[in-house]
Amino acid sequence: MNPDRRMIVAQWTGWALAAAALVALGALWAWDRGRVWESPRWDDARLSRLAGGGGGAVGSAARDGGAVETWVVAVNPDCPHCRASLARALEIRLLARAPIRIAALIVDAGHRPSPAVLAALAADEVRWDSTFAWRRRWGHRIYGELLCFDRSGTLVRTLAPLGDSIDDRRASSLGESLRREGGS
Q1: Nearest 5 degrees, angle CA 75-CA 79-CA 84?
Q2: Can you tell me the distance from the alpha carbon of 169 to that of 35, in angstroms, rounded to the nearest whole number?
Q3: Does residue 135 carry a pLDDT above 50?
Q4: Mean pLDDT of 106-129
């Protein structure tokens, strides 16, 4: 076989492998999107309540039961973006004077978080997803995302991780409207 022919065969083989990889990825995506996921609930008994939330700088009314929503940030203790999203949620609550509780949900942690990790999370409430419900039952995978729950623990909306200006503006607008309207 001459070198030109070998090059053509190699190119076609490369294109075929790339196409097969795309088809496999598409099939995996379709299978994942077709799964029936549980609807997240903040009152889920599989989420272990942990002590150690610092409570943030404001929000005594929110912490004392006056909150109209609970904004839960999915936090992996090893992820700096998760901690930044949690800090940004606390800032937005302060700036918007929104009647919301800010909670941290420790995800993808095989062991109970240490007291030092818990103390570093300045949230009104900290829970640990010890059964991996966030990923395996609810179908969520984005660290730092915000899951917004109403007073009854029902999921109202999901927001992208805070840090992007568009997401920040959306969360700020939601916080301000919750303050004005007193609910979702």
Answers
A1: 75
A2: 32
A3: yes
A4: 91
State how far the Cα of 184 lies from the Cα of 178, in Å rounded to an integer: 6
Structure tokens at 104: 């941290």
146 Cβ contact partners less than 8 Å away, ≥ 6 residues apart: 71, 72, 73, 85, 89, 158, 159, 160, 161, 162, 171
Supply the pTM of this predicted model.
Answer: 0.74
pLDDT at res. 150: 93
Rounded Cα gap, residues 83 and 163, in angstroms = 11
Residue type, 50: L
Sorted by sequence, the CB contacts under 8 Å of residue 25 that are 6+ apart come out as none
What's the average model confidence in pLDDT over 114-135?
91
pLDDT of residue 126: 94
Question: Pairing relation of β-strands 155-159 and 146-150?
Answer: antiparallel
Q: How far apart are CA 138 and CA 11, in angstroms?
A: 42
Cβ distance 62 to 100 under 8 Å? yes
Helix (H, G, I), strand (E, B) or coil at 148: strand
Q: What is the DSSP string of 50-78?
A: ES-----SS-HHIIIII-SEEEEEEE-TT
